[in-house]
Design a protein that fits this description.
By secondary structure, the chain is α/β, with parallel strands linked by helices. The chain is built from 17 helices and 24 strands. Helix 1 packs parallel to helix 17.
């Protein structure tokens, strides 16, 4: 048996939420250990050189949701984090046209009017609705989700805060809010716009990363989840972390180690150690054991409790609820090293929107058909993708004169159907290659010379993402962001405040409130709860409620 070092707290998994929780605990004076199965930190927020000279943000790829309060608390710019905003984006149609999305309101209105005078007016109403919803939900991101069945003063206080916020909306707006949270992004856009290309461009934010289609109830909230981000105070703004998304994780790691924390890489958790209903530490795959009265899992709730925790330590109804929690793989990823910048014939030369996120989607029906393929266990034959070339803004990602492209693809199944059998192991060199060819075919709609400019392409399926990052089915949100899995239902009713049925054990990843994305809110909120529970809540800085 390996070593038995003792700590005040152990965090299992060095993803960005695990590192965030570890930073707050260490800065509060605890002796904290982070254990990580890979030889590097960051989980899905990593930068890796998988082709000489190029750096890939090979899982998560863009920054917006990271809470400014946490960046300030942990002084992440001091440790090298720099987020560079990008402006706009575009969707290209098969007939050589395009719709460009700009951050400048007047420019965007003119562009919308170029396609539809009606939609130019409708966009003002649409954006006002989205901003109202953002302002309503954002205060809850860094607060506990109240337990409506609890009579504890804190839960009652949080419920009263929720009621106060809802009452402030007014009767009409409250009704619209409840309706918005449960409706599909397709229906929401159909109510506002008439132009297919405009609707298709906006709709992508409602489905990306989810096993849902544009007409699936709840996808309007998924759009809101993506719009809640900000860069330098601009709601909905997006940016690149200089050096790739790993810069976020590296800054968190440096902050943690400066606060006295320890990171052990190269071996994951085999099992959580539990005695008499209390967690006592972790046993790693390599045989080492570490002891602590507090253990926080950055793994998703299914992996934590169904694979690494003895079922005898858990109530049956809790296990059943965890099994019901929806975590479905739906997204693939291509990281492409380019010998030169591709040509975009439909766009004006040097158009600034080419430095943003680019798509080839023409209608909501096209997107819904792509979802139909996924439901049958196939990758979408006419896929939706979110494509960016971050090296245009951050030249550190590629050699001089070269570029790096990232392509996030909907939809790709975790259990791929081949010969009537659906299994993750059906992903192999041949099926990955066919999937990549399908994506390249669609990319050629926007940039016909993409294949001739490609010197290397890394293909990631949901199964591949699970193998490397330990995200169940490769789901980037550690659980669908549907209304039945939000607030006090996330991940399990009665356990929405980062606690678990095991005394001293916590969930700090995106399976917990408020959900996924490189937000760091679950990790920070969980750290606040841990410190409060051990009587050191006053040691939490910044935003702590």
């Amino acid at each position: 048996m390996g070593q038995h070092d003792r700590y005040d707290a152990i965090v299992a998994g060095a993803g960005h939420n695990g590192l965030t929780a570890a930073c707050y605990l260490a800065k509060a004076g605890l002796k904290v250990l982070v254990v990580e199965k890979n030889d590097w930190i960051g989980g899905a927020a990593v930068s890796r050189s998988l082709h000489e000279g190029w750096t890939y943000s090979n899982c998560s790829y863009v920054c917006s949701l990271l809470r400014r309060e946490i960046v300030r608390d942990l002084e992440l710019p001091k440790y090298g984090l720099q987020v560079i905003p990008y402006e706009g984006g575009a969707s290209f149609s098969s007939d050589g046209g395009y719709f460009a999305y700009m951050s400048d309101h007047d420019a965007l209105r003119r562009e919308i009017a170029r396609h539809s005078a009606h939609d130019a007016d409708a966009y003002d109403r649409f954006s006002q609705t989205v901003i109202r919803q953002c302002r309503f939900i954002r205060p809850f991101l860094l607060r506990n989700a109240p337990d409506p069945t609890s009579l504890k003063p804190r839960d009652i206080g949080e419920l009263l805060f929720l009621i106060k916020q809802a009452h402030g909306l007014g009767k009409k707006e409250l009704g619209e809010t409840l309706r918005f949270w449960s409706m599909s992004i397709g229906d929401f856009l159909d109510e506002h716009f008439e132009n297919d290309l405009i609707k298709a461009h906006i709709a992508g934010a409602g489905i990306i990363g989810t096993g849902l289609g544009v007409y699936s109830p709840g996808t309007a909230y998924v759009l809101l989840h993506h719009y809640m981000g900000d860069v330098d105070g601009a709601i909905g703004a997006w940016g690149f972390a200089r050096g790739g998304m790993g810069a976020i994780s590296n800054a968190l790691g440096a902050c943690f180690e400066e606060a006295g924390g320890t990171i052990v890489t190269g071996s994951g958790v085999d099992r959580f150690l539990v005695e008499g209903g209390k967690v006592t530490g972790v046993a790693l795959d390599n045989g080492d054991e570490y002891r602590a009265p507090i253990v926080a899992s950055n793994m998703d709730v299914k992996r934590t409790f169904l694979q690494h925790t003895g079922q005898q330590h858990l109530p049956d109804d809790f296990v059943k609820a965890v099994k019901r929690f929806k975590i479905r793989g739906s997204s693939g990823k291509l990281n492409i090293a380019l010998d030169a910048l591709p040509e975009f014939p439909a766009a004006p030369k040097g158009a600034p929107f080419l430095r943003g996120d680019l798509h080839c989607a023409e209608s909501l029906n096209e997107l819904e058909r792509a979802y139909d393929d996924w439901k049958e266990g196939r990758w979408s034959q006419n896929p939706y993708f979110d494509m960016l070339i971050p090296s245009q803004i951050d030249p550190t990602m590629a050699p001089p004169g070269k570029h790096m492209m990232t392509v996030f693809v909907q939809y790709a199944p975790y259990d791929l159907e081949v010969g009537g059998v659906r299994a993750g192991t059906n992903w192999n060199g041949q099926t990955r290659g066919a999937f990549a060819d399908c994506v390249f075919d669609k990319l050629e709609q926007a940039c016909p010379d993409i294949r001739s400019k490609t010197v290397h392409a890394e293909v990631r399926t949901p199964w591949d993402i699970e193998q490397e990052v330990s995200l169940t089915e490769g789901n980037i949100f550690q659980g669908e962001l549907t209304f039945d899995q939000l607030l006090f239902n996330r991940p399990v009713p009665g356990y929405a405040q980062y606690d678990t049925p095991i005394d001293g054990m916590y969930i700090v990843g995106s399976s917990a409130h408020p959900g996924g994305g490189v937000m760091a809110a679950p990790g920070a909120n969980a750290a606040r709860e841990i410190l409060r529970n051990i009587g050191r809540g006053g040691n939490m800085t910044g935003y702590a409620a």
